[in-house]
Amino acid sequence: PKFTQLIVEGYPKHLTQVKQFKGNPHSHNPSSRLTHDTVEHVRYRILQHFNTTPDKYSVIFTSGCTAALKLVAESFPWRPPTATEPASQFCYLTDNHTSVVGIRGVTSALGVVSLPVSPKEIEARARDVAQSECSSCQTPHLFCYPAQSNFSGRKYSLGYVRGIQARKLYPACDSQGRWFVLLDAASFASCSPLDLQEHPADFVPLSFYKMFGFPTGLGALLVRNDTAALLRKAYFGGGTAAAYLAGENYYVPTPNMANRFEDGTVSFLDVIALNHSFDALHKLTGGMDKVQLHTFGLARYTYMLLSSLCHGNGQPVAQIYSDSEFENPSMQGAILNFNLTDCHGQIVGYSQVDKLASLFNIHVRTGCFCNTGACQLFLGTTNQDVKSNLQAGHVCGDDVDLVDGRPTGSVRVSFGYMSTFQDCQNFLNFVVECFVEKPVEVDQVKLDRLKSNTSSKGSSPCLLTMLTNGKPKHIDNGEHAATEPVVNEYGGKAITKEAKSLGKAQYLTNIYIYPIKSCAAFEVTDWPVCPLGLLHDRGWMVVNGNGVCLNQKREPRLCLIHPQIYLPSNTLLLQASGMDTISVPLENYNEPHQSHGVCQSKLCGDRVQTVDCGDEAASWLSEFLGQPCRLIRQSPDFIRNMKKGHEKGVSSTALSLVNEAQYLMINHASVDLLQRHITSRQESSDHQPLDIYELVSRFRANLVISGLEPFEEDDWSHLIIGNTHFQVAGRCGRCQMIGVDQNTGAKTKEPLLSLSAYRKGKVTFGVYLVHQSLDGSNATLSVGTPVMSQWSG
């Protein structure tokens, strides 16, 4: 992000120059020629960066690395089997990005053999090819591998390029024909030098935003000119033809390699921005060799400390996924991939790590990183596990981090040339504060061994002393203190369901509605229930100038807007400090204003149809929030059905603009226990403890009950409040939004930190409810009503 800012801020200095680059490079007027010449100069700079020349390689600009790979997939001269020659083979390392493996989608329909190759097979199955085997077979085959794994940071030998081309390595040594190599350099090129003169891969896809952070949406495919003549292209777009006829199937491609494959006009302003990107890179770093040493040093430093950290009982804090111990920058990149474990050796889900990291302004990547092969290898996940996880509801990119206690992905920390040692220390302190059972201990034997493999032996003691309060304790390898079995997830004595609530009363103590999503609560003592939940709860939401829904994570000052509903006058009042109160009609469909247009919005992945509430409300919100905003409400004719809870047998239920379910309920006993835990954690600090009312407000529940035992609601399946029957639809996963002070809008780390620590990484609080039956059309909920619960099972 810092570098992106540098590039963007650099534009005013070149504004006059940029204005000249507005001519389409396919024309011949002065501005177009200047654009064309500048784009060609950038091509030369790219080749120079990789130590090659236009005589050897061509640069084809694409929309990204994936588009470059797709171009190879669609233009490589694949051959089906014939009577005299075998079919082409598409071979790929299993540790490859999805976009590489996806080439299989093109080749499978062409009779081409797809062969996944494990990393250990390349050299283990290598053999010298006899001259008699070097026949005249010209069948083209393609082998794809990454210069650096985007999962673990492992660097694969660049010598594989010539080894495959010469048929000295597996799988090329086992198959006749001509072998070509695609070297995926997207991850590698961001922090490492690549010499294409020494390692002349046939195809090299690149992503410039991975190298520089800017511009996005721009990549390139570097193609060896000796290989280029083999490529076949079916579609032809503007700028790619030497000549063609509209009335006859006649087309002759342009002889220039880049022009032939760049359909239409390239994004020339983004291409020109690469000039400034290369300038900044060399000015700030002095070259890729220095970038490699700097970033590897940061990764190694973090690896040494993280792999040596232990809980108070001696259990390791992290399970690191790496093929090396970060001894050599030629074998390991600036990537650290891991899962954290608790003091009992259980994996902490990556989504919980991600949520807490955001409180510390640390942005990590989680999941499988579009590399299923490496993810399976390191996590020990079988093919059947992947299929079973899908059936259990886990898909790529979601936050389902554990299935049956086993991880579905991991956490990745990546370093760039703008990263510093302070960043490493901040990350390690975050891990210690949030996930290490105190006192912090260190596996000193392992740390000393790791330090002996590097010359920078003096870099870690300062942080070690800080992490362990000056008392790092020696832990013998393999000797961990015995731990007591977990009786229950709250750290207390096991309590039977009967002992928790049998024969004892529970009551509804508070009712809150939130008329405008993410704005302040409106507390009532009794309130009507409608088919969508509490009447007018989350009936409205605020969107920014781009139509994107605002919440307190994006705009915490929303909590300072206090909506109030007056049913007798059919009005919604908007109030905020320093602003005049305005009113909005609750129902305005019979007399639609010209500005009350129907529009489409996105909410929690759902498309919702909404109605704009007019210019007065928009102006009021825009003035208070300091950005263009509008107030919209769900259209009365639109039905949005609930998705969560189907695995619990919850039937499809209509929703308002809520995130997950019709109601959110919390237990006062759970709030009390959490407050005591927060207070005990803050006794040694200057932080003012959260009072009960403020803590309740952080969880933004609709219903608060006087439960008897903390977190007993987690095990309920049904409950009855008065005459209204509810079904529990699942637990409510929490994020950094509960850190927003509902009185000031300030962002804090509590209660998310304490909740995660107390619940052993399970950051849930409260349960979702849907009503099953309503007591007639005038059903209401009232404070003081008895609550009856039923346990799951």
TrEMBL record:
GO terms for molecular function: lyase activity; molybdenum cofactor sulfurtransferase activity; molybdenum ion binding; pyridoxal phosphate binding. Pfam families: Aminotran_5, MOSC, MOSC_N. The modification N6-(pyridoxal phosphate)lysine is found at K210. It comes from the Eukaryota. Its cofactor is pyridoxal 5'-phosphate. SUPFAM superfamilies: MOSC N-terminal domain-like, PK beta-barrel domain-like, PLP-dependent transferases. It is an enzyme of class 2 (transferase). The active site is at C370. InterPro entries: Aminotrans_V_dom, MoCF_Sase_C, MoCo_sulfurase, MOCOS_middle, PyrdxlP-dep_Trfase, PyrdxlP-dep_Trfase_major, Pyrv_Knase-like_insert_dom_sf. Gene3D superfamilies: Type I PLP-dependent aspartate aminotransferase-like (Major domain). The keyword Transferase applies. Sulfurates the molybdenum cofactor. Sulfation of molybdenum is essential for xanthine dehydrogenase (XDH) and aldehyde oxidase (ADO) enzymes in which molybdenum cofactor is liganded by 1 oxygen and 1 sulfur atom in active form. This is Molybdenum cofactor sulfurase. It comes from Oncorhynchus tshawytscha (Chinook salmon).
